Amino acid sequence: MSEMALDAVYLRRCLELARLALAAGDVPVGALVTHAGRVIGEGCERTRECLDPTAHAEVGAIRNACRALGTFDLSCATLYTTVEPCVLCAYAIRRTRIGRVVFGVNAGTLGGATGPYSLLTDPTSVMNSAPPSVQAGVLAEECAALLAEYPT
Prior knowledge:
By secondary structure, the chain is α/β, with parallel strands linked by helices. It is about 35% helix and about 20% strand. The chain has helices at about 5-25, 45-50, 55-70, 85-95, 140-150, and strands spanning about 30-35, 40-45, 75-85, 100-105, 135. The chain has a 5-stranded mixed beta sheet. The mean pLDDT is about 95.
């Protein structure tokens, strides 16, 4: 299977996780981390459910991945998420040295890659951590459509 096809498979799973978040009253964001061809961590947005502003889908997936591997070093891992990681999540990605990030839609001014504070992609922003490669726009229409279902 090509990398693009595999990215779409994993992003579809992220969309399933995002639907769980939406059903629970949270922003529909889903994320997962893969390593060596398998999913090692998943998460969906739970900020409202947990009353925790750090309970982002990406943070949950990263926490679970670190526990699964028993390390903070996720340099051989890929993070998939329906929405561009925000600055908070970008720091967690850089701190764990995730090597690749794939996302569906841009997060605008909150985005850690395309926003004004490009923590995810700035090579000087986090010591001892090279920025990951970033692939944007995977299943963008589906991710945007689900995000639009959230009542603001």
